[in-house]
Amino acid sequence: MKTTAKFIQGNEAVVEGALYAGLNFFAGYPITPSTEIAEILSEKLPATGGKFIQMEDEISSMCAIIGASLTGLKVMTATSGPGFSLKQEAIGYAVMAEVPSVVVNVQRGGPSTGLPTGVAQGDVMQVRWGTHGDHSIIALTASNLQDVFAMTVEAFNLAETYRTPVVLLLDEVVAHMREKVVIPEPREIEVMARLRTSVPEGTNFHPYLAREDGRLPMSDFGDVHRYNVTGLVHDMWGFPSTDPKIAYDLLHHLVDKLENKADSLARYREYRTEDAEILLISYGSSARPAIHLVEDRRDRGVKIGLLELQTLWPFPRDLVRRMCKGRSHVLVVEMNMGQICQEVRKSVPRPEKVYLANRFDGVFISPADILRVLFMIQGKGV
Question: Which of 74, 66, 77, 72 is nearest to 41 (CA)?
Fold first, then answer.
């Protein structure tokens, strides 16, 4: 089977993955360090028959992809921290209305305009709780560009499967580094199609009545069915309701459809974990120096390994608890003030054994930064 190898930038790997997954509508607004995604798609998407629109801001970008998704298109937008903040109300609408969509957030230093060209991973909790109200969400990440391609395809697949916005949470280093990426042949990686209703024209269509397997078939706007979509609590027809039971059932559905599948949604990689006494946990570009450190310490006889998380939300608590069991120490490596570290501590019976190696000053964390903390844990000083 013939494949294509390209030496490309991380943001271009996102584009390649999105096109492979069937993206046919993009709306966005340029912002560092995600701009190349929009720039490349402005040329490539129309060439494949898709639609590209540069909107006036990030709010309208998110709203535009919601509307396009409801007409049956596969949609994506891309931004960074400040733009992601602006999108939150519309992301909440997509959660409530169960609209499949992919949102790429290439993280940079914050808050506010922060460090536009500096690397950071400070948006982890914003992805989880940025929009108001009880809800769940899927967030994926990757540390190398082959996985960026794969996780982009996966983001589209999960958005379609669970009728939810999915956030692809990258960072400036991953977005702007260059690596070889192998583009698979069509159908080599499974691509999920939109699940459409089989209810015939002229028959009542209940857009929010789940099948026995929990999935909600859709009907494209402009096709044979007419139905209502709202950000309000709604019944099976999509019409607003203040009935407490309807509100209770709907919110449970929105949360449970993802949180109850946390184990099956968990994507991760392991490096030298089988006999590790010390376990590193990392994600995104921070996992790269962590991998380097594991190999270096292994060469010196230290039993150390790495769990690289590729699914951040819903947080894979059972996986983390299982992987941390029996380790002498756990060290979380990230570029923020401990956002995933606190989730790891909440997941294990001995949180005092979980330590943090981090940077949040716009400088890429190095193996030496991690090693200094490791030495302190081992009582070797700095």
Answer: 77
Averaged pLDDT for residues 279-285: 98
Prediction pTM value? 0.97
What was the pLDDT predicted at 17? 98
Can you tell me the distance from the alpha carbon of 24 to that of 77, in angstroms, rounded to the nearest whole number? 11
Residues 6+ apart with CB under 8 A from 167: 102, 103, 104, 105, 127, 137, 138, 139, 140, 155, 313
With 60 as the cut, is the pLDDT of residue 382 above it? no
Give the three-class secondary structure for 304: strand
What the chain holds in terms of domains, given with CATH numbers, is 4-183 (3.40.50.970), 268-377 (3.40.50.920)
Mean pLDDT score of the chain, rounded to an integer? 96
Query: How many C-beta neighbours within 10 Å does residue 4 have?
Result: 10
- The two structure tokens encoding residue 213: 């397997």
Strand duo 178-183 + 354-358: pairing: unpaired
Question: Tens digit of pLDDT for each residue in 339-354?
Answer: 999 999 999 999 999 9
pLDDT, average across residues 20-33? 98
Contacts of 299 (CB under 8 A, 6+ apart): none
Tokens 């059932």 map to which residue? 249
Contacts of 244 (CB under 8 A, 6+ apart): none
CA dihedral sign, ordered 242, 244, 248, 253 = negative
Looking at the predicted structure, is the pLDDT value of residue 363 above 80?
yes
Q: Please, are residues 216 and 253 in contact by the beta-carbon 8 Å criterion?
A: no
CA 261 to chain centre: 15
